[in-house]
Amino acid sequence: MIQQTRPSAAFVLQLFERNGLKPHSGFAAILTQLDWESFSAAVEALGATLAFSCGTPRDLSRVLIGHSRTEAAGAEVIAHVAAVTPDEGHSKALRRHAADERRHSRIFSALSAIAAALPAGAMAAPEAARDSFVDEYDGDLAGFLCDTHFAEIRNVFHIGALVRMAAHPDPSAARKIRAGLARVILDERRHVTGTARMLGQLFDADPFLPDRIRVAFAEYVKFIGREAQAAREAASRP
């Protein structure tokens, strides 16, 4: 049973154990060396912004449609990476991941409509990813997977915070929103182990991968911090 309440190496390793899997030993060792306290603090700072960004049904709807757009953009980028990845096993895993993200986009869009008490399908279709998001991929699968792995860990806990913060005056709507978010979290947990497994498969062929994982981790902590700062600044605007 997953009992970790904060991002940590133990959380990732428990996900593997729960699914009867074993991570690559080198990858597991690197995980235990990372500064998870900084990662957790950044994720919690981002989660704290939900207290003032989804305080009303309208605000909650806006947050949820924002997630829908993010998931749609992510699906497009992952699908592109899958299409240009020569290894069929990796390509297949990425295609499944992209399909999950497209489904998440639809779930968040539906939940946004529920929060705003709109008819099903009333929300505008999510925008496509900007070309730069796709074009910046240069074939570096390991680098892409590093970023995606830490993004998925962030998502598990940030969406978990959204479950706790997503209050709604209509009990039925609140129940549907929490249930939809819980389904997304289950997939995100699978994405954590999926990206970790692919990184493990690349581990022995790339002697620089341990250092690249460390650098990607540190950069992602900074990225989450920028997200939290942007959310605080947006909330302070009249």
Structure write-up:
By secondary structure, the chain is mainly α. It has one domain: Ferritin. It starts with 8 loop residues before the first helix and ends with a helix. Helix 3 packs parallel to helix 10 and helix 8 packs antiparallel against helix 9. It contains ten helices and no strands. 77% of the residues lie in helices and 0% in strands.
Helix content: over 70%
Task: Kindly report the CATH topology.
Answer: Ferritin
Calculate the terminal CA-CA distance, rounded to whole Å: 44 Å
Q: What is the beta-strand fraction?
A: under 5%
Name of the CATH architecture:
Up-down Bundle
| Number of helical segments with 4 or more residues | 10
Overall shape: it is globular
Q: Main attributes?
A:
Ferritin; 238 residues; mainly alpha; 77% helix; 10 helices
Walk me through the topology:
Layout: H1 9-18, H2 25-33, H3 36-48, H4 50-53, H5 57-84, H6 88-115, H7 131-135, H8 141-165, H9 171-203, H10 209-236
Helix pairs in contact: 3-8, 3-10, 5-6, 6-9, 8-9, 8-10
Summarize the structure.
The chain has 238 residues and is mainly α.
